[in-house]
Amino acid sequence: MAGSLYIVPTPIGNLADITFRAVEVLKSVSVIAAEDTRRTSILLRHYGVNSSKNRLLSLHEHNQVSRTMELIKKMSAGESVALVSDAGTPLISDPGSYLISKAIESDIKIVSLPGPSAILTALTGSGFLLDEFLFLGFLPKKRGAMIKRFEQLRDSPLTIIFFDSPNRIKKTLNILLDVLGDRRIVICREMTKLYEEIIRGSISELASGLKENLKGEITVVVEGAGEGEIEVDVINDRILELIKKGERVSAIADQLHKELGVSKKGIYSLALKLNKK
Question: pTM of the prediction?
Fold first, then answer.
């Protein structure tokens, strides 16, 4: 009887986020396939899982064909294999799809475990509509290709999520502002780790105000077209209401930015005009 291929998510930062079932599977399988065996061996030792060289094998874009054939042979002979990612759920912007497809062709049972995911962690903390969303993975490296990708999504109502690097995020924000216009955005950095940071605001605010030299892994969530639009009359009424209460213009801008998710700079300008009437 053939073995099974387990897809096992690993923590994206906080080691306490692994599931009991994931640890049980990692202890029970004959082989664990990982992109970076050095990193995975450290993780396995933390959970008391055997990480010997004959049990932990590398699987990456440069050896996936030969390694897949080796793993298929083992599973066909009755051994079970676990596929893990360096962090998070395997196969998402990660190698392994070739192994899965060949395992399916070989009638090997695929068992996909639920678990940590940078995508879902960022999405659920964003505050945006999540009935539908679009994951872009890592954006194109070339500016022109990135612009073209965003142009395709300019009018899409879907919430957009993608990965970016700390040394490029400022450039990405400026391109987003030029192509999509100003809308709400959330930047999630070092999620579940000690220095986790979630930065909220409009694209224009973060493009100009984001601190330099950010470090760590970054996941970006952008609201869909029209999602955050609020009628001008509603904004005006709230501004006038706060003016009557004696609130300062700067305080009004801060409050309505947090309350309605609209541009602080835009609220400030509008409040100045209404305050003069």
Answer: 0.80
